[in-house]
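User: what does the whole thing look like in 3D?
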Amino acid sequence: MTLETADSPPISPTALRPALRRHLHLIATTVVPLVAALALSGLILALLGVDPLAYYGWVVQRGLLSPSGLEATATRMAPLLLIAASLIVAFRAGIWNLGGDGQFLLAAVIVAAAAPALSGHLPNWAVLSCCLILGAAVGAAWSVVPALLKAWQNVNEIITTLMMTFLGVSLANVLVKLAFLDPRTTVPQTRTLAVADRLPRLFETTVSSGLLIGLVAIVLVHLIMTRTAFGLKLRIVGANPRAALHAGLPVPRLTVAVFAISAALAGLAGAVEIVGVQGNVRADWNPAYGLTVVPLVFLARFNGFASIAFVFLFSVLSIGGESAARRLGVPNHFTLVVVAILLIMLGITEHLDQRRRAAGR
Amino acid sequence: MTQPGHPAAFRTDEPIVSLFEVTKRFPGVVANDSVSLDLWPGEVHVLLGENGAGKSTLIGMLSGIQTPDSGAILVDGREQVIDTPARALELGIGTVFQHAMLVPSLTVVENIALGGPAWSRPDKRGIAARMAEVCAGIGVRVDPHAPVGSLSLGEQQQVEIVRALMRGSRVLVLDEATAMLTPKGSEELGALMRRLVARGLAVVFITHKLNEALAFGHRISVLRLGRKVGEITPDRLTALTPQVVTAEVVRLMFGSDAASAGTASGPERQPFAGGAPVLEISGLAVDDEAVPLADVDLTVAAGEIVGIAGIDGNGQKQFAEAVAGQRPLRQGRIDLDGRPIAALAIGERHRRGLRYVTDDRLGEGTVAAFPVSLNLLLKRVGDDLFWAGGLERSGPIADHARRLVAEYDVRTPGVETPIGKLSGGNIQKALLARELSGEARAVIFAKPTYGLDVQNIRASRRRIREAADRGLAVILISTDLEEVLELSDRIAVMSQGRIVGMVANDRSARLRVGELMSGVAT
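Assistant: Here's the predicted 3D structure for the full assembly of 883 residues, as structure tokens:
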């Protein structure tokens, strides 16, 4: 798997035709599998006895066209974008941080406990800033063990981060039930942050301003990775760790930095979700966004802007799918089936494309 | 050194296997050029040659991994096509490769059972019994139920030999079999080979250690740059004294001939006039599982080229990496321009002017997917000239790349082309451009022409000369003796992690270096 995506070279006037061909090629390799995936998913729906057109109609209607649906979609994007940013930093640096769920949930729980506690004592903007920083710090803290093990002992981070996720999710659960329990409710959950104290909404809509935080984060991450010396160092470590050593880069320090940034962004996602949308955490709440976003950033080839598009598409599918599920009796997680089929289709397209290229056109 | 008597009992009139003028070409290289070789029953036939001499290709053709482009392989006098390893086994040619081909987690018997038909249950008891028989016959002892991973490398080799015999091999090819063994293990293997040939087998023993060739072999063939340059027959081997044989083999292995003509990059170097020491290394010791370094002392003056000759894998890589800072030192000093640098990190040593042109061009020298322009700055990422406050300045980066590409004649479609798409020669030119530009003081070249074609070899050697002429201190590590002789002012010979001798590059240098390399002289 190549981690390095080719950034498109500048187009000169004389190269317009190849540029056009390249764009057509890009469309062919993106749109064709997308259509194929929708068709195949439709086939599965038909087998389940559901009219695929009705399902897709509902998804588009509820996720994209209706104002409330679009607002829900936009709000859903916020944590997903932050997690996508978290994954892009790590994956581009060749570090497979799959511990996003633990980092996310633990940050969410601690922020959920801190926000109502702070809200009486500090002005609202300060509470929110503190919560965002706290969430990022908790996320980063939860990656210290995998980071140190990877940097100095070269222990496989896929295993350690996944293990830390199990621990993190369980610890979050325990914290909600034992430490941060709201005594006024019967369901085990943390105290609720008043709606008025949450992240402000954008303009006259219900869209949380978390969306802006997510967009800024992912664009910033994209620019850092592609345009700065720091990002280049991380990409060198990711693309060829031995070359990084040969070139004299401080590989262990960079590794720790990658873990810290990546996990902080995952933690920030948790904080944004709490102070933006949820307001509290129930003991059984675990949206598992972390692993859901992994295929999306792969589809986007770790490109920040493409990730925004895929996160948007996924949010439409997921918000629309939730309402279509209620209406048509399709399981809620059918969205994941669509994404999985899309991933397979894109994989096949890529394989065919490479074979064609190897055959010398 | 013992001279084994030649067993004549199994001598028949024809060899078991004959290679007749086999030639094998790879893109840009002739790996074997009309090589003829006879493998007689009752003989240990030693194939001697440096790395790249064509030994591995020859074995590949015997064991069915490669097929010759021209020429023929005769088994029992009949021409055969050996196109798969299974076919080779069928014809009775078994091969034991340098790196053990056994599954460490399975027992010896299970390993031997591998390769049977998939549907049948292996008869482990039967295999163990047959194994015991074969073992008794050749005088080795192996516990059939021990997991392979718990055996020593020598024992694993014995298992492979037993396995080959159980499959009915009459010809046994041992590829660099002693490379991984202790001296005692090598002795035992030598004794085993003698017992095997006493039973009428033909053994092919590949090595680059001259003393082993003399101790174990009945017949010695020497390969050099893909050609068989000589053969010492059993009668001559028994008739001549070891000293005479040694001299002859050294001459064959390292002697000057037409094979390497055409790579010379210019006239002979002027004798080095002397200069201030730039790079001083003393008492260097490095821990390493394979080849630890000990007591390495080396001083290189400005404008001087010190060649490091030696058979590959004798600590050259460890030495280069230790000096460049890629490996921790156990002991020793490294001074650059009189200032200690041993405690400095790689990047800081680079900034002080220490350059290392690695031989692993794609593995560590470059990031294949990155453009040429960034690869040319790989060791300067973040430099203020090209990154303003950490932000990439694409103009200066591209200008820098275009300048170096033109100056060092790197043939590339553009500076944005991923460097992995260039040919080996052009990647090497880019590496030379990166390391030799800027404020260099001392340069270590590791196998700078390895795998290049004649034209690029010449260009690389010219760069090395020019570097020295500019007043840089140059260390040239090479396994190509011609190259070392052509370029160096002095030649250090490295063997088993030590510098075993330092020779001034005069008329007698070739022979003396050759002797030091093969472990004859001490």
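In plain terms: The mean pLDDT of chain B is 85. Chain B touches chain A at residues 324-326, 345-350, 356, 358, 360, 363-370, 374, 378-379, 381-382, 387, 390-392, 416, 418 (CB under 8 Å).
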